[in-house]
Design a protein that fits this description.
The complex is a heterodimer.
Chain A (H helix, E strand, L loop, with lengths): L1 H24 L20 E3 L7 E3 L8 E6 L4 H16 L4 E7 L3 H11 L5 E5 L3 H6 L6 E5 L5 E6 L4 H8 L4
Parallel strand pairs in A: 3-4, 4-5
Antiparallel strand pairs in A: 1-2, 3-6, 6-7
Chain B lengths: L1 H21 L8 H27 L6 H6 L6 H7 L4 H19 L7 H25 L23 H30 L4 H31 L10 H22 L4 H26 L13 H24 L15 H33 L7 H19 L15 H21 L4 H24 L6 H6 L1 H21 L2 E7 L4 E4 L2 E12 L4 E9 L7 E10 L4 E5 L1 E4 L3 E11 L2 E10 L1 H20 L2
Antiparallel strand pairs in B: 1-9, 2-3, 3-4, 4-5, 5-6, 7-8, 8-9
Helix pairs in contact in B: 1-2, 1-6, 2-4, 2-5, 2-6, 4-7, 5-6, 5-7, 6-7, 6-11, 7-8, 7-10, 8-9, 8-18, 9-10, 9-12, 10-11, 12-13, 13-15, 14-15, 15-17, 17-18
The chains are: A alpha/beta, B alpha+beta.
């Protein structure tokens, strides 16, 4: 009995180490959690336009249309890399609604960014305090979500979109 | 140049420790020579650390680590603290503190030479493990391959005076347990007399006091910097600091109570190993990036595996020795229904259950993700509903534990305590009835006041009151417990009776907080040296002549493009009025005001506990 008691710490240690090791070796990235939001309703949000504070977009405004939501910021260099691809998407899928959320960015920087690199979005919402990103469970920029006509999140990508990702992962869903 | 010096001295220090480690088997040393080598290795490790600090001070961007984490227009204090504001530097600080502990331990007198030597050899072994970890996976002395004039900057959230000193103090606590660990293992190997228990007590008190200070600083920082108005969030990183803290508390109590009982000695060894294991485990969880929080730096699987290996070796070795070697047979446990020993046993069991509960909540998400590929997060609701109820009987007991007898079930002056408890209960019931009833509030207030009251009764009825150092040393356990009582009152009031008010305001608006009129004076933006600040200025209680000015706002750090929130806090002895400036919408500013009653009691309680910890170090 006593022996078992003394052995317990070693057994617990072994269990903890095995699980941690499996976790580390499985290549799971703690920054890329399996999304809890997939196939769930898009979170409720409300945001004003970057260009006109009175122009408000709400969750119900994107009902009944396929929407691609992209969180970006002027300070985010990977965002700059994926940015041109949105123009391609725009051209290829004109019926897709492109909603950009400008995340924790001074308005002037955001405007300048979209002026320099072009604005592919149908609507640019301001998320200056990051509350909308919090609702969506954004871990780091850029992040992109595809919402279907029923308002369900059908796809989530952390990090920049690449040509391959666009072709193999996003286009089949469009 | 400084990077080279730093790297070489780090490698030399590891080499010396390797030599010392082998000395157990191959080269035999005199005690003097042995201690000399230990001190030399400590000085080299210090030199290595200060070389890195120097590189930060002079903004030597040819060092890759400095380039990644510093910026030339950062204020001096953050250049210094930048040294440990990143993964590599903070691991070097870890090693540095480890060798400082070995350094001071080598001066300990009144212990057997062989025992001291063995303890230091185990320390040398730990030094080698962590030293190799730094050299192979987290070298802070890498050369920057490109020529640059400017660095990338320190995470602005870390640019805060409280946080500059938080890591060294916290680490002093974590790493301090390494000495306790080494002492316990050496004690098992040498199977000497009980002298090691006294040595271990001193070091575990020092570590515990540092850990307390480190945790408190961290939570004070979270309180005014994160801008959520809370000070404890059951964040995984907070949890892993709490585990060795509670286990360390159990250890300190056991060490003070032990009178040569076999069972308690065994338990002490177990706790000593556990405390350090939990410290290393915490390091693993944070450094491997398995847990994400403000504390995790860039994650890297190879680092994670390396620390996991260290954790496995250290803990496995510790518990294996514990399994194979038993402390010398001695006195049996004198367990009665309610005496000092039984109170100690109950308190230890509760603390260990609490530690394990936190451990379970912390690693549960990892297990679930491995098994089901789902990410869950275990937070406040789980911990509040498990850990707190487990601790409650312990709190009830601690108020009278110091005056319990060793030999009998009798409690002196028991009538006084019963009477005091009844009166106190009635008062707290009245308070809840007339003011604000809340179950947790009721329990917390009753417990907090009961601990304070019972401790005061105990002091006045059990000792002759004298005002001298000896007296304060005698009543020290009661003082520590009064500190806990005060902290419990602060914790209860600030979390249960917190009041939140939301406003949408224009500049010049007046609004009402707690019966006082507050003027939202203006919004001001200024350019500081390394950030831009946006401040809302508020005048509190404008009807009085001496109205107080409060500033709440945000800072924008252009180098790292981050915004931090800066809460404006008006400290009063019985409450904090906590202003948070939100965003501007439709020309109105969103302002949140939190009224946190008795927050200052938490910090006061912690300071009292730390004071008692220090006094206890000097008491034999």
């Amino acid at each position: 009995m006593n022996r078992i008691f003394i052995l317990t710490p070693l057994i617990v240690l072994l269990i903890i180490c095995i699980f941690s090791l499996v976790y580390l070796l499985s290549g799971k990235d703690p920054n890329k959690p399996p999304s809890a939001l997939l196939n769930k309703d898009v979170p409720i949000f409300e945001s004003s336009s970057l260009y006109n504070a009175n122009d408000i977009i709400k969750t119900k405004d994107i009902k009944n249309k396929k929407t691609l939501i992209n969180f970006f910021a002027s300070w985010c260099s990977p965002c700059k890399i994926e940015h041109p691809l949105f123009f391609e998407i725009r051209k290829k899928y004109p019926e897709l609604y492109l909603l950009g959320f400008n995340h924790k960015d001074p308005t002037s920087d955001a405007k300048k960014y979209l002026e320099d690199d072009g604005n592919p979005y149908d609507f640019v919402g301001v998320d200056s305090d990051g509350l909308i990103a919090l609702e969506f469970g954004v871990f780091g920029l850029p992040e992109t979500y595809l919402i279907n006509e029923d308002g369900k999140i059908v796809y989530k990508l952390m990090g920049p979109i690449t040509k391959d990702i666009l072709k193999n992962e996003i286009e089949p869903l469009l | 140049m400084s990077s080279l010096v730093g790297f070489l001295s780090l490698v030399f220090a590891i080499g010396i420790n390797f030599y010392l480690f082998l000395s157990r088997y191959i080269f035999k040393f005199q005690k003097q020579k042995f201690n000399l080598f230990i001190r030399l290795s400590s000085l080299l490790t210090l030199l290595s650390f200060f070389s890195l600090m120097y590189a930060y001070l002079v903004s030597d961007f040819s060092n890759y680590n400095v380039f990644q984490n510093s910026h030339s227009n950062k204020p001096l204090i953050y250049k210094i603290s930048g040294t440990w504001g990143n993964h590599e530097g903070s691991m070097l600080l870890w090693l540095c503190i480890l060798s400082i502990f070995s350094f001071f331990f080598s001066f300990t007198k009144n212990i057997e030479d062989n025992f001291q030597k063995l303890t230091l050899i185990i320390q040398a072994f730990l030094h080698i493990l962590f030293g190799l970890f730094i050299v192979f996976t987290s070298n802070p002395f890498l050369v920057n391959s490109i020529l640059v004039k400017e660095g990338l900057g320190l995470n602005p959230i870390l640019q805060d005076p409280g946080l500059a000193v938080h890591p060294p103090i916290l680490y002093a606590g974590y790493v301090g347990y390494s000495i306790v660990f080494s002492i316990a293992i050496a004690g098992l190997f040498q199977n000497t007399d009980d002298e090691w228990l006294y040595v271990a007590k001193k070091w575990s008190l020092i570590s515990w006091t540092f850990l307390t200070g480190g945790i408190a600083l961290g939570s004070y920082w979270a309180y005014y910097e994160l801008g959520w108005g809370g000070w404890w969030f059951w964040d995984p990183v907070e949890n892993i600091s709490l585990m060795p803290w509670i286990a360390g508390l159990a250890l300190v109590h056991s060490l003070m109570m032990v009178r040569g009982e076999q069972a308690i000695k065994k338990w002490i060894v177990f706790l000593s190993i556990l405390c350090f294991s939990l410290s290393v485990f915490g390091t693993f969880l944070v450094r491997s990036g398995i847990l994400t929080s403000v504390h995790s730096f860039a994650a890297d699987a190879s680092r994670g595996i390396f620390i996991l290996l260290i954790f496995f070796i250290v803990t496995g070795f510790g518990f294996l020795v514990f399994l194979l070697k038993e402390p010398k047979k001695s006195n049996a446990l004198n367990l009665l229904f309610i005496n000092k020993v039984s109170a100690l046993v109950i308190n230890n069991i509760l603390m260990i259950i609490a530690t394990l509960t936190i451990l379970l909540g912390t690693i549960y998400p990892i297990i679930i993700e491995v098994l089901y590929n789902k990410r869950i997060s275990v937070g406040g609701p789980y911990f509040n509903s498990t850990v707190i109820p487990i601790m409650i009987p312990g709190f009830l007991l601690m108020s009278i534990a110091p005056i319990l007898s060793w030999q009998t079930n009798k409690i002196n002056n028991s009538k006084k305590y019963v009477l005091a408890f009844i009166i106190l209960s009635i008062l707290v019931i009245l308070q809840s009835y007339f003011l604000d009833f809340n179950t947790w509030g009721f329990v917390g207030l009753l417990l907090g006041f009961w601990i304070i009251l019972a401790s005061i009764i105990a002091i006045f009825s059990s000792y002759k009151i004298k005002i001298n150092t000896k007296f304060f040393k005698i009543i020290n356990p009661h003082i520590a417990h009064i500190g806990v009582g005060i902290a419990i009152i602060g914790i209860t009031c600030s979390s249960v009776f917190q009041n939140e008010l939301d406003f949408n305001l224009n500049e010049g608006d007046k609004f009402n907080v707690n019966g006082k009129t507050v003027l939202f004076e203006k919004i001001e933006t200024t350019n500081e040296n390394n950030f831009q600040s946006l401040r809302g200025k508020f005048l509190f209680d404008i009807e009085k002549n001496q109205s107080k000015e409060i500033e709440a706002g945000k800072n924008y750090y252009p180098v790292s493009k981050m915004i931090t929130s800066e809460a404006g806090i008006l400290h009063q002895w019985n409450k904090d009025i906590y202003f948070i400036l939100g965003d501007q919408k439709n020309n109105e500013w969103f302002v949140k005001v939190l009224i946190n009653p008795f927050v200052s009691f938490i910090w006061l309680g912690v300071i009292i506990m730390m004071y008692s910890g220090l006094i206890a170090v000097s008491r034999r």
